[in-house]
Each structure stands twice: as structure tokens, then as C-alpha cells.
């Protein structure tokens, strides 16, 4: 059909345009030139021979992985008449809400600047630069005075903004109708129900082996685990991103996880990448940003006090400080409903690397990657693909608004008594589960369980599993929750998730609950 | 294929409802928009583009010019085209849509008038319509240029005059120049969207305030 063909050629043109500026393109060109020396390349059939050479030497696979990665990340090209804001977020009222939320944060930052008389950014004097370079690997020992810094916002503030989100064209009347939202979220986004989720997450089914369930000590490894590890090694040998993504839906063996994630996110450690990281490190040393102090404070408050993550405190500083200066992340704003705040340098407009992210979830990644530049790349790629959706207001199915609505809808539909009871005692379930979802459960689950969960996020290329897990946790503790009589008591029941096993919960909720 | 915008006059929407609009409590679920082309002769329709605003289903009727003395009749050219897969939720509610000639049920050769029938069965939305409506007709197929006579009717080949010695062969020079020109065109065409990654201005990076705009 004409329409599909023209859509396809548009997508191809867009991907080619994107790949032309990348490392891979120049490498392929170099390889093609070098291959001309080889005896099997003949002038008459030059094109076919070079293509054959690429296939054999593995370069075609690399190109396939790059294309696959582009397809997963970038949204489809939109209608030619649609303005760029439409690509970021099609619904006008959501764009407006995101804009006012950003303004609020900027105001808060600006007022913090003026109150404390600290510049947003300044160049460090040479002595200070040397000092920072010496302490680069042990920034955790530094104890700067951070008492005056307040956090810019907490998850509760963000939740309030989401609760107040309203579509002006929607019937928000007081009278109860068949579509009254009993939960906190009042926008009518399309979310999946359990039959659709079952179809979507079919590899989590009861008759399919899973890591996290079928690798426990009672199950003999010959049944599933050994074979799964063997397949994983084969996938890594083939270096095929799409196969790795399919494979990881059943979980990744611990030994292979670091490489598998790097393969799926299409990250290869080229010398250029290490150089890029060193460049960012130099930027950190030369310039001091206000955001740095906020990052310090947040890491000190959260990760340093955590039993599992305190060892990685220094790594966290190294990664987060560089991340806040990385301009290549700006390209993801094309499909993120948020916009980077701008500022004026000497009267000229410059782009401040966005100071408005809620501290992202770096700590669990430190378990996998030890080399700073690789750790940094993985973290950046995961943020740009998934985690940014947890901090901005958009109608995307993996955006935080849809996740909240999905959670509430699942709970209402499949645990109506529990939902009604919690609502009656003033403990709206979303108030408890929001903080889990907005951090992708990092800091709440045990680390090995968290990594199994993030395996599935990568495998299914969506964050919906976070909402399903949140509902599954409520289902698991339903009996205790039915007996509480206040919000505080409900929070106490759900305070400690560190003993939970993620995969059995998900499986039971999706495939084994009698509805 | 090129296309030309056709200036059209969009009449106000008319709600179709049983009973009196003022006294009945429900909101109308059907709207009709008439589109006329007062200053243009009957044309061949190529494409219709618009921005949806909470319309669930769209039908289009067309009145075409007939050569004989029979009065032009209304014919349905698009029936119940779905714009929102779930009328109760936001999916597709504010999307940009294009409809092409080949999707229509009838021939769109000599269009006089169009009538868009919008339906939104869900009672949840306060209003619905389509915006930024634009109608396109087929553009000219190839650029209308007249070729100079010597290009379309080349004279037969003449014998090249004998050159002085020491000068290179003109046909070789011309093919090399052609290759170089092709190379420069290629480089000019393949611009990339990769960033260079500078972020300070004149070596300075002193920021004091973030701007709100």
C-alpha cells in the first residue's frame, strides 16, 4: 500500500541520517576501503562482494544491531504537518502541565541560587581543579557543608502535580458515571488490562522457564538453568542485539548480565567512548555547577546510608557529575516531553544541561560494571531509553502517568475489595506505590531481584512491568492490608520489600490469579 | 508527487441531534462540516489533511460535477474511518491525519463540495471537531520548463578541431571534472545530525540564572 511504503522509506531515511554521523559509519567505510585489498573482491561485482565480506566478518551484524537500537529508541516519524512539539507529546494539556512543572523547578533553583548567592555555574580556579583531580576516586570522603541546600523536589510533590492533571475537554463532573476514576489519576489514558498484559508478557508464563524461579536451589539445574546459560553464551558469541533482547525476557544469568545489557543497549567500548568520558571528567574538574552540590547531598542522604550501595558512593559521584554535563543526552529531548532549561552566558543563549532530573538510579548498575566509562555509558543509555519517562509528564504508555493509571486500574479491577477498603481509610494505594515506581524499585528490592526486574525492562522495552509488580505486591500483602485502619499502618505493612521475590509475584499475578 | 493547496471555505459545524438542542440534556454525537470551494473550478482531490480533536469516526461525502444536465448527487467516499481506536480514551485524540485519493471509495475527479460527518459516541468528551483542515489537489507532474532548441534537437556530432600539443584530452578532463563535481555534491548532501558537543562560549561558562522561556 502506498502509505506503508512511504512510511517505510521515511523511517529508513531517518535512520540512515542518524547513523551517518556515528562512529560505525566511518568504521564501515574504513573496512570497505581496506577490503579492496582482498583477493575475493572483484571490480565487476564490487557491491555484492563487499556486502558478502561484511556479512562474513561480522560488520553486518554490528550494523543490524545499530539499526535495531535506533528503531527501539526513536519514535516513528510523524505526520509531515505535525510540529516538533507534537512528537515530544501529542496532547496539548500534558505539554502545558509539563511546562508549568518545569517552570516551578526552575523558579526553585533560581531562588536557591540567589538566596545562597551561589552561581549556577562557574569555572573553577586552577588550585581547586588540581585538588579535585587528586581526589577524583574518593569524592565520598569529602564533607562539604550542604546544610543550606534543600532538595529541589520530592516524589510527593511530583505526585501532587500528576493528581491535579486534568483534560479540559473531559467530563470531570461530580456526578458518578461509568467512567469515574476512583483512584488518584484523573486522565483517561489507554492502559492494558490483564488479558492484554498476558499477551504482551507471554514469556513470563507458567510453562516457560524463568531465572528468578526455576534456578532456585530446589530445582535441579539440568531442567532449565544449564540450557539457559548455554543459550546465553551462544547469543553473546553471535553478538545479535535482537536475539539478546528476546533471550533476556527469561532473565539473565549473573555472569552474563553485564555483557548482555551492553549488547542490548548497543554499547561497545571503543577508545572514542573512553575518551568521551575523560572529556566529561575534564569538564567536571574545570567547571563547578550548582547541581553538583544537589547531587552530593542526595547521594549522601540515600546511597551512602543504604546497606547495599554505600560501597559505590565514589562511583556514583563520578557518574552523576559527568552525566549532568553530557550534551549528547540533549538529543533525547526530541521525544521527551520535557525541555532542557536554558540560560544566558554573557548575553548569548546557551543550553544548561538539564538540572531538573530526579536523581536517577545509578547505584544498582555499579554491581555490574566496574570500569567508570562503561558504567557511565550503560547508565546514560538506560536513562535516555527508559528512566527519563519516570520524571516527565507525558501520555506515552511507559510514562509515569500511564504507569500510575495502569497500577490503579489493575488494583481496582482485580482486587476491588482491597481497593475500596484502602480508599475508605484514606490510604489511596498510589500514594504508597508511587515512590516505588518513580525509582524503578531501586532501593526497595534486594539487588539481585532488582536486576532480574530490570532484565525484563530491557527485554520488553517498556516500563509497564513496574506497575504490574506494584499491583502484585499489593495482591501479595492483601490479607494484612485488609486489616489496617490508617494510611500509616498501610505504609508500615508495605515498608519492607527486601524479602520479596519478584518473578513468582509477577507470574502469580498475571497468570495464576483467579479473576 | 507534488500537491497544491486548494483554498476552501469551511462552514460552521452543525450538530445533528434528535429533539431540541437547547432543552435536551445529552451532548450531540454527530457533527457535520460543509466545505465549499467558491473560487475554484471542479478539481481532482489528492489529499485531505487535518488535526483531530477527539473525533472518533469520520465519514466523508462528496458532490461531483457531472457533464450532463443531471443535478450533482452526494456520494459517500469514506465510511466510518476510525480515528480513535477506543473512543473513551485519549489514543489518537489529537493526532494529525492524512487521507489520500486511493483510500476513497469513489473517484474524486471533479469535486464541487465536501461534507465531513464526525461522530463521537462517547459521552465523556465535552466537544469534538477537526482542525486545520486542508485540501490538496494534484500538482503538475513534471516541472513545466521549455527546453531550449539546441538541447532538445542537438546538431549532429562535429569533428573536434585539432588541438595544440601539450594540452590534455578534453573528454578526459571533462569526465574527471564531472567526477569531482559529483563528489562535492555527495559531500554537500550527506550532512549528519551528530552534535559536536561544545558547551562553553568563548571559554566562559559562568551562569547565573536559568531563563523561564
Automatic annotation (TrEMBL), chain A:
Gene3D superfamilies: Ypt/Rab-GAP domain of gyp1p, domain 3
SMART domains given in the database record: TBC
Highest taxon above the source species: Eukaryota
SUPFAM superfamilies reported in the protein's UniProt record: Ypt/Rab-GAP domain of gyp1p
Pfam families recorded: RabGAP-TBC
Domain Rab-GAP TBC: 251-461
TM helices/strands, residue ranges: none
UniProt xrefs under InterPro entries: Rab-GAP-TBC_dom (IPR000195), Rab-GAP_TBC_sf (IPR035969), TBC1D19 (IPR042507)
PANTHER family reported in the protein's UniProt record: TBC1 DOMAIN FAMILY MEMBER 19
Name the record gives this protein: TBC1 domain family member 19
Organism taxonomic ancestry: Eukaryota, Metazoa, Chordata, Craniata, Vertebrata
Protein encoded by which gene: TBC1D19
UniProtKB/TrEMBL annotation, chain B:
Family matches, as InterPro entries: Nicolin-1 (IPR040235)
Gene Ontology cellular component list: nucleoplasm
Protein name: Nicolin-1
Organism of derivation: Macaca fascicularis
Amino acid at each position: 500500500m502506498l502509505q506503508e511504503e512511504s512510511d517505510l522509506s521515511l523511517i529508513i531515511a531517518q535512520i540512515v541520517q542518524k547513523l551517518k554521523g556515528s562512529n560505525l559509519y566511518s568504521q564501515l567505510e574504513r573496512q570497505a576501503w581496506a577490503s579492496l585489498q582482498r583477493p575475493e573482491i572483484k571490480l565487476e561485482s564490487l557491491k555484492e562482494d563487499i556486502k558478502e565480506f561484511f556479512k562474513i566478518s561480522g560488520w553486518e551484524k554490528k550494523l543490524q544491531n545499530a539499526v535495531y537500537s535506533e528503531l527501539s529508541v526513536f519514535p516513528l516519524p510523524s505526520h509531515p504537518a505535525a510540529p516538533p512539539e507534537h512528537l515530544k507529546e501529542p496532547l496539548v494539556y500534558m505539554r502545558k502541565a509539563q511546562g508549568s512543572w518545569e517552570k516551578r523547578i526552575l523558579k526553585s533553583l533560581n531562588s536557591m541560587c540567589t538566596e545562597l548567592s551561589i552561581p549556577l555555574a562557574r569555572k573553577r580556579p586552577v588550585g581547586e581543579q588540581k585538588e579535585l583531580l587528586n581526589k577524583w576516586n574518593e569524592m565520598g570522603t569529602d564533607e562539604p557543608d550542604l546544610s543550606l541546600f534543600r532538595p529541589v523536589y520530592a516524589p510527593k510533590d511530583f505526585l501532587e502535580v500528576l493528581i491535579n492533571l486534568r483534560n479540559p475537554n473531559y467530563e470531570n463532573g461530580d456526578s458518578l458515571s461509568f467512567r469515574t476514576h476512583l483512584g488518584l489519576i484523573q486522565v483517561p489514558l489507554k492502559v492494558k488490562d490483564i488479558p492484554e498484559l498476558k499477551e504482551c508478557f507471554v514469556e513470563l508464563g507458567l510453562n516457560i522457564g524463568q531465572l528468578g524461579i526455576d534456578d532456585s536451589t530446589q530445582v535441579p539445574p539440568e531442567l532449565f538453568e544449564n540450557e539457559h546459560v548455554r543459550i546465553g553464551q551462544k547469543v553473546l558469541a553471535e553478538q545479535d542485539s535482537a536475539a539478546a533482547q528476546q533471550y533476556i525476557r527469561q532473565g539473565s544469568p549473573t555472569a552474563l548480565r553485564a555483557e548482555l545489557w551492553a549488547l542490548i543497549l548497543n554499547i561497545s567500548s571503543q577508545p572514542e567512548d573512553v575518551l568521551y568520558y575523560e572529556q566529561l571528567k575534564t569538564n567536571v574538574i574545570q567547571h563547578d555547577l550548582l547541581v553538583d552540590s544537589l547531587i552530593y547531598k542526595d547521594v549522601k542522604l540515600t546511597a551512602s546510608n543504604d546497606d547495599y550501595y554505600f560501597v559505590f558512593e565514589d562511583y556514583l559521584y563520578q557518574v552523576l557529575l559527568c552525566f549532568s554535563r553530557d550534551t549528547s543526552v540533549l538529543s533525547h529531548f526530541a521525544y521527551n516531553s520535557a525541555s532542557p532549561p536554558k540560560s544566558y552566558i554573557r548575553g548569548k543563549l546557551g543550553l544548561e544541561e538539564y538540572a531538573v532530573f530526579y536523581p536517577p538510579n545509578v547505584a544498582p548498575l555499579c554491581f555490574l560494571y566496574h570500569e567508570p566509562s562503561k558504567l557511565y555509558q550503560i547508565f546514560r543509555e538506560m536513562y535516555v531509553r527508559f528512566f527519563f519517562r519516570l520524571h516527565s509528564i507525558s501520555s506515552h504508555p511507559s510514562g509515569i502517568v500511564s504507569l500510575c493509571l495502569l497500577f490503579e486500574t489493575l488494583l481496582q479491577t482485580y482486587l476491588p475489595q482491597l481497593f475500596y477498603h484502602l480508599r475508605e481509610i484514606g490510604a489511596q494505594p498510589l500514594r504508597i506505590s508511587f515512590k516505588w515506581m518513580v525509582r524503578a524499585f531501586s532501593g526497595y528490592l534486594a539487588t539481585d531481584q532488582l536486576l532480574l526486574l530490570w532484565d525484563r525492562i530491557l527485554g520488553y522495552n517498556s516500563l509497564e512491568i513496574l506497575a504490574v509488580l506494584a499491583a502484585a505486591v499489593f495482591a501479595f500483602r492483601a490479607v494484612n492490608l485488609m486489616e489496617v485502619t490508617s494510611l500509616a499502618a498501610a505504609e508500615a505493612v508495605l515498608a519492607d520489600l527486601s524479602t520479596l521475590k519478584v518473578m513468582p509475584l509477577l507470574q502469580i499475578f498475571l497468570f495464576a490469579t483467579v479473576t | 508527487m507534488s500537491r497544491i493547496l486548494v483554498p476552501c471555505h469551511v462552514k460552521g459545524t452543525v450538530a445533528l441531534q434528535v429533539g431540541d438542542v437547547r432543552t435536551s440534556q445529552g451532548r450531540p454525537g454527530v457533527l457535520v462540516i460543509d466545505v465549499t470551494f467558491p473560487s475554484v473550478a471542479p478539481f481532482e482531490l489528492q489529499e485531505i489533511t487535518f488535526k483531530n480533536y477527539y473525533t472518533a469516526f469520520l465519514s466523508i461525502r462528496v458532490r461531483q460535477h457531472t457533464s450532463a444536465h443531471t443535478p450533482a448527487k452526494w456520494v459517500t467516499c469514506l465510511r466510518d474511518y476510525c480515528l480513535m481506536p477506543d473512543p473513551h480514551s485519549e489514543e489518537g485524540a489529537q493526532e494529525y491525519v492524512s487521507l489520500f485519493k486511493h483510500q476513497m471509495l469513489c473517484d474524486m475527479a471533479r469535486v464541487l463540495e465536501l461534507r465531513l460527518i464526525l461522530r463521537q459516541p462517547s459521552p465523556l468528551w465535552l466537544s469534538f471537531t477537526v482542525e486545520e483542515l486542508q485540501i490538496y489537489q494534484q500538482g503538475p507532474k513534471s516541472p513545466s520548463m521549455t527546453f531550449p532548441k539546441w538541447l532538445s534537437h542537438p546538431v549532429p556530432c562535429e569533428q573536434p578541431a585539432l588541438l595544440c600539443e601539450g594540452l590534455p584530452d578534453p573528454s578526459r578532463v571533462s569526465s574527471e571534472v564531472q567526477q569531482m563535481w559529483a563528489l562535492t555534491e555527495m559531500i554537500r548532501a550527506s550532512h549528519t545530525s551528530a552534535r559536536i558537543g561544545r558547551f562553553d562560549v568563548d571559554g566562559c561558562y559562568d551562569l547565573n540564572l536559568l531563563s523561564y522561556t
